[in-house]
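Technical appendix A lists one of the benchmark inputs used to test multi-chain prediction within the project. The record comprises two sequence entries:
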Amino acid sequence: MPSKTSSIKKQIILHDVRQAGWLSVLYFLALLLILPIQIIIQYSNPQAQEYMEKGNLFLYIPEVQWLLSITVPVLLGILLLRYLHKKQVSDFIHSMPVKRSSLYHHHLVVGMVLLFIPIMLNALILLGLQAFSGIGDYFNIMHVFSWLGIMLFLNIFMLLATFFTGMVTGMFSMHFVLTYILVLLPAGLVLLLIANMSILFVGYPMEYYADMAIFKFSPISYFLINFTPDPELSWIVMSLYAAAGILLYLAAFWLYANRRMEATSQAIVYPFMRPVFRYGVTFCFMMVGGYYFHAISSSFAWVIFGYVAGSLLGFIVAEAILNKTWRIYSNYKSYLVFAVSLAVVLIAVNLVKENYENKIPSPENIVKVYFGDSYTYTEAPEYLEAGIKPLFFTDKQDVELVRDLHEQAIEAPRADNYYEGELRSTFIVYELKNGKKVARSYTYSLDDNPELKSLQYEIEGSNAYKYANNAVFNIAPNEIYAVDVQSNDIKQSSARISDPELINALIEAIKKDIELEDPQADSEELLTYSLDLLTNKDQGYYYASFDDSDKNTIQVLQDAGLYDDLKVYSEDISRIDLENFERNNTVTVEDPEEIKQILNHVTYYSEEEDSYFVTFNLNRGRSTGEEMSIEYEDLPESIKNQLEE
Amino acid sequence: MIKAVEISKRFDRKQVLDQVGFQVRKGTIYGLLGSNGAGKTTIMRILAGILKHDKGCVLVDGKTVFENVALKQRIIFMPDILYFLPQYTVKQMGQYYADMYANWDQQRYDQLISQFKLENKKVSTFSKGMQRQVAFCLALAAKPDYLIMDEPLDGLDAVVRQRIKGLLINDVAEREMTVLISSHNLREMENLCDDVGIVHKGKMILERNLDDMKTEVQKVQFALRKGQDVSFLEELNILHQEKRGSIHLLIVKSDHQELEEILAAQNPVVLDMLPLSLEEIFIYEMGGAGYAIENILD
């Protein structure tokens, strides 16, 4: 019998539009307000126009653009697939003479079009503004197209993810929750795994792995970071998302074709997925529990408690969702299965633990070593100033020294979060001849481990360490076009140096001072100066602070006649006001000798209750007006007497 | 023709249907009887192509229904709890069906709607009885070859019920429409169905042609003269026997005329052939299992 009806069902489309069209309209209006209207308002106000920046369209409230992009497609998908999550509706629709594949594509295409229209319309309006008004100076056609492309990409990906979870669940409320779990899961799971590895393995460098850009694992975080005036989207990541989107589309299609409609109103429709959900939730809760107790207590017994409590809670939550009741004790066997398999995993962890923790590459395999407190600095170029390349230890003796310290660090007890005293967080990354890397990080006390302490100071005192950890050694002087020097924190004055010769001399002096620095000696000087080396490239700069103990740097500034302007001498100070900790008693000091003594002992802030707040009044130059502190014992005797009265 | 052979279905761990089999001949009305939860609805949802059965086979005109669009064009399923698209009016629902069903007859729809005196308002504002009437109008205007209805006559008043029955019988007679109808009320099915099947706890426990049944089983009361020989009763296939004073009450499996002749030959003082309800037939025929049917059917 030839069919009179078309394979494109007008009525299905009409119904979808009736049900979800309003969302598309609101989306259009929201984007209209954020972009064209805001741009027009800013442009038509001369004062605001002055501050308008040229560039990408993500300049305009990117957070809201991002928030809309990750919520509107999800809400849309939930509305379009609501018929799957109610028995009566599901029966009605599926008794109709339409194939599931056709239903799926109808809803998906309608969803995509409902997302496409508001974004596209706004892009067209922006193109119109660009072409026919002076606003065109503030963004160009490419900006509009890149905005359009990125918005559509994220919106459609989120819609596909929502369609996938819609097929997995039979419950309206779970649809929402599962969608966000799905898109956050890759990043969240990796983060939790890394965090828990660092509990189980001493030396596991959590920051090292956490910095492998976990944010890329979830579109939500990836686009949050990239909804900026200049998005740095990687083609690889985008292709992976595109591939994931296609997979989600195919998987949802397959699931729908095999969906059992009697499971409508079940949390998870497909029986084979229920254990995945049950144990997945249990596992994640366990890791959160363990890490939480590790963070607040540092005791391993509490960590175990966290694992047990977390997994139990997770199991109960998962079971309650699956069975839609809190009476879940009948399934305690499933929890035992989890507990047993977990015990097996922990035993396996123990087997590799020793091997992992004691591993130090042998010297002949090592090409170079990083040693410092933060590997991110050297590894991630975005933290690096222009012209700087990360530096490593390559010298055999230096490498041997690091290996010795590494050996000691393995033996040293893990420092407690609440440890008082000198702590070191050390990051060691070996790069091996076979191209692999071995990364470890440790936090230990220097006072409790004298051998470690001497090694630490020996390395920190070595030039190799100083070269590797101070970016100034890698700056090409001709990259620097100016140096800004700021006075210490009592006086407000600064100077800009742009003479290339002087810049060179200053850089050399800074290097020399760093080379001379003894890691063990705490500088006596309390007041520091700071300087910024400004580079031509990417408006980058190198920041450093120095004080009066950095003789070479000071000498260069003195020779250039800049030092007197920066330095605060006691003669500069006309008066000092001292106020006690409770702020109910003020004493004024005007004697030059006393002023000198106070100036030599002043600190930025003291928590001691017998300390005093210090305010300086200057003869020449402007005071920063900021309060500093001084401790009672450092006060001149005469002042002490005066205070006692 | 609808043919179901040993279909089984599980919902998770619960066995809902256990090797159910039955046949609905073309152009007849088949009543599916059973208490709530017996599995009637599941059978119907499988026939409507909503669910997939685990074992056995279900064929409509020799083909499977699941995902078979051409076949589903000719099948309408009316669930026990009706669903209409939210905010849709009577007219809009008609447009929706027209887009779905190739045989849609708009003229007939308009005719039926006015016959039932339904206004063009949002269906959700109607009473349950009126909604049911809208559902019938939609179903009949789609001119299906197969109409599957789950408890369709519930909540309708006698007048409307009669009118709908009339329409159904009309379509069956005129277009040879095949109807599968479920109910937990045997009396309701009595003068509507050609065949009935009783489902209990997921099993088909009895299938009968109602015409055959009525001609096969007779209810009779008679009184004989005192001391008259009753040995002739042993020749009869008696399902049930009672004696009140001199009056014998018999339920006999026999042809009407044959039984009357046998009894008349005994020259009884009283002889009445009594009407027999479907319910009585089931109860007496099922003998020991009869009580079960009493429980099933209220």
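The longest helix of chain B spans residues 158-175. Residues 33 and 198 of chain B are 5 Å apart (CA to CA). Comparable benchmark entries are summarised in Table A2.
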